[in-house]
Predict the 3D structure of the following.
Amino acid sequence: MTGEQIPVRAQWALHGKNTGGEGYRILAYSTGDLSGEHFADALSRFQLGALDTLPQVSVSYAQHGSRPGGSYLALAIHWFARDGQRFANGVLPLDNHGRPTAFTSYFCLPYRPLAAGTVSYLAMYEALRAVTLPVENGPPLELAITAPATEIPGIDDLAMRVAALLLTDRPVCVLGADETSVDERLRFIDAAMGLLPYGFRSRMTAATWTRSTYRDHRFRLFFSSAPRSEEQLDHVVTWGEPDMVRIPDGAAGEYFDWLIDKVNPLAVLPRLSTEIGFGPKAAIRALESVDGVRPQPAPATPRKADRRDPPLATAADGDSIEQALLKCAAYAEQPNLPRLRPEIGFLKRSADSGEIVDGDRERYRELIASLRLLRPNHLLEKYEERLYAALLALAFGKPLGYEGYCQVEDCLKIRPGTPPHPALLHAIERGGISDLLTAGIVYSHATSPDERSRKKWLGARNAQLDVAAMIGRLARDWDRPQHARIATDLTVDYLKGASSRYEPQQVRHALRQHGFLAAALSKRHPGEDQYQVYTLYQFLKAAYPGGLGRQTVVEILTATPTVPTPALLGAVLMQLPQPGDRRLAHEMYVYGSLTLMNVDSAMAHRLLSLTPPRDALAITAGAPPP
Amino acid sequence: MTDATSRSEPGIAMLGATGSGKSTFLGALQIAFTLQARDWRLWWRDAASREALIGMNTALVSEGKFPLPTSGIDTFDWILRREVERTERTGWFRTQTFTESVEVTLKLADPSGEITGSGQQGGDPRERLVEHLTTSQGILYMFDPIREHKDGDAYDKTYSLVMDMITEAAREPGFDGKLPHHVAICVTKLDDPRVFKTAAELDVLDWDEDHPLGFPRVLDSDARVLLDKLCEISRNGNADVVPKLFEQYFHAGRIRYYVTSSVGFMVNKRTRRLDVRDTENVYRMASGRSLVRSPVHPVNVVEPVRWLVERSVPSARVPLP
């Protein structure tokens, strides 16, 4: 569909250096309403800075008094005079110092006919780049500009966000568009402006490129290779990265929500490509189809911070990360995914910055807990895990360590050892885990402790477990005994399934050093005798793969730092087929129980004197003296 | 030995007519510090300043290209840092030596030569330039004698701007009619044979026998003599008023003269030393475009910047032994 031709009268000026001239000046201009002073003033206000790569285009506006029809849209083409690329006759490419001269062809077109035809900047550029200006004053140009065909506004995610940002009265700088063409960038400016009332073009200023060190320019929307200094308070967005753009609260945010609500449903129509036939039910099918993809329920204004909720009230004045957490909570509750996305991006970037200190993390954890940001929320779709990933990295550490995992449990207010919900668990897995203990806990929750999960636990490199170190850790006191149980089970599984990957001698040494874990298991799992016996049996089996000799029985039950437990005796007995050996075990258990008790030295001596000597007991039981 | 870091942000504005070499001077700054003042390190914190420093340095030093003429006002935040060792008395018979890191953020404003002219008064960029100048602590003034010989407009470009600065400063109570800035007036293009010959005739070239390339320099104490001589041959004949203008509206003790060459002298490819018969390190192509001929060895580029920094930030000075 071709747009209509709109006739306009273009006033113009040519800016550059003339032959033999020293400085930049207006070389020629049209003899219309606008004077040379008008042009000089306008051109001095809207410069791009010195650029290596031309042509570039800037758009601005001009006004001539306050009379009706005195408003103009201005478009400037900034160019070097080169063979095959001249927008003016009779100009030289270099100045007196041998430096390239940057010329500007500047055009002012009356606003009203352009607005009536909803003419885009790109359409203006198409018409104006065909013009070759003279180097002498002359009449205005009569041009025909093609109005674009009527079309549904494209759903350019970045343009939609930039449109909202432009309403904050702060300039928007677009980075990362180095590989795009002038036309593409101008089309983007059009796309953003196409999502605002056309009337804003009457005061709009934009440029397809500016020099980053030229800080004082006045463009509201501009492309550059680097941000200006922080003094300019620009919104900085990155080409192709709409998810990184945070939409501010307030009226601009509401406008963005309005755009999402209105533009998304229309723009999504071309993507509904499932074959549908016309007929009596066509309308119903169309509605069903549209309803099926309706991206969001009408987004409401973000929930205001609940003044009764202390953390929210505190964070209202808090740092930008706290503000982002509050917004995440509000947008997750609605849910409003387009608004949630950039907040997640901001949290992720903040986490990756490496600038968050422990004190901050603690505050963020408290806020996350009170906002219940880690709770399951399937309405967030793919953003659910992304949110968790950002929160984990921000407040719990990345990769996640054991301390961080315990904090996650606290934050969720779940009983230690209870699995977090699957989406969070998956986010933890994907985010990386720093130690085998945490990995073990996570993977034991994620899957059954089969071979596959054991391999995942040990990582892609199929790392070898330091069994001795793990036994040492299992012997210690645990704040969360449930975690100790998981670690114990995983260790037992490892020992059962990988007999070729550890040295029984090392296991024996570690077990002896820590009383064969009998006391630790008894303390952590009182009343779970069967579990204790089974576990100790497996450890003994791993440590003594050839079976228990009589001397070993004596060692296990009498030569450890702690009193043997009934479960340990049970585990030993289960490995002794000979009645004489079992009798020995009984004797040694009694001996160990009496002599290893935690009593003072006087009582220890007395008990020892009341007990038959161990050697004698061993001989009585038919064993050689130890 | 203890460590401390002091940080300052003196603004330094550049002034000079179109083509007087302001941007080229900045482009040569990093290589100049690298070659001649290795105790200073020059870098950046923001991406735009990084891009400009690397871009200008690479173009000039590696590709021999001069920077594009500035359009508007380019602003760079470049950081100069050095370690200064100081000794302080801590008791009757005791002293303590400590290392202080001095970090200076140079807020350099490089304006287009066009906006310095009297015809630009009242314009938007001009107002911003006056604001930059007024708020800066130091001014690097570039006086291009070759350009002055041809165009003779240095006074025109400077006078109205100084008057605008006076207008701004006069709003401050207690203003005594003199601007508080330190001003380094740099006579540029010493490598140009006309400037070099004038300096030789005046016998102000100081030959350092130990200089690896055999480069001479004009001592700061002689720079004003050379400037006066060069002003005599100005086209308009009023270039000599420029230094007088500065001396009238700035404190005389805060003005220092330098003779510089951002690209340095041409180094003879065979002898690897300066050949006094072929000093100019700029090659002009048939198209009119200029390129650097031989490697860039800036002359007197570090000195005016260091002087301005040390005057603006006293802690940056190296204490006398």
User: Anything to note?
Assistant: The interface with chain A takes residues 18-19, 46-52, 66-77, 112-114, 117, 123-125, 128, 150-151, 153, 284-285, 287-290 of chain B (CB under 8 Å). The domain at 3-316 of chain B is CATH 3.40.50.300 (Rossmann fold).
